Amino acid sequence: MLDFVKSVSLLLALLNPFLVIVYLFGVVQSLDHSTFRNVLVRAGLIASTVFCIFALAGDLIFSSIIQAEFASFQIFGGIVFLMIGLQFVFKGTNTIEMLRGESQHLVGAIAMPVLVGPGTLSASVVIGKKLEPLLACGAIIVAVAISLSLMLLLKSLHDRAKSTQEHLVHRYIEIAGRVTALYVGTVSIEMIMRGLQTWAQKFQN
């Protein structure tokens, strides 16, 4: 049970709804609550499916299909995360459009660049190694569900506040983006260091 809770916490921390809602601020502003909910739920289903696949077959995917060490993916993912964190520190919300891109398919654009990233995929593989297959998928679904619920709550709060406190909303987004960038940077360094430690152990053996 403790491993299950830790696994949920790990993936939830990387999904970080308070950070994701900053990424999606343009979408939050432009869509009504019902449309936003439908888009977010569909993106969450795609992300959950991808996470479960990596949890159940992560080692096979890396060793047989990609033919690369998981440690290499951790290092690369850490570098990508680090670049995102640095962009947010120096550019703030100007980074958001770059991260979301120009995709016309909003569900896929939210699922793949935002929810499914190097950090969350790495966490899914780790969860798959810690838990039995059914429990691993259960932990993933719980974490994604909690993250989506919090994002919908934040959307509701935004809709209520934007008419009277719009300047405060924009101020929150600016501050939250820079503060959470510190978290992203910390996670990225941890991913890089774990990848390097794994490679170092291989050379020692």
TrEMBL record:
It is a multi-pass membrane protein. It is found in: Cell membrane. One of its GO terms (cellular component) is plasma membrane. It comes from the Bacteria. Signal peptide: none annotated. Coiled coil: none annotated. Keywords: Cell membrane, Membrane, Transmembrane, Transmembrane helix. The chain crosses the membrane at residues 6-27, 39-58, 70-90, 106-127, 133-154. PANTHER family: UPF0056 MEMBRANE PROTEIN YHCE. Belongs to the UPF0056 (MarC) family. This is UPF0056 membrane protein.
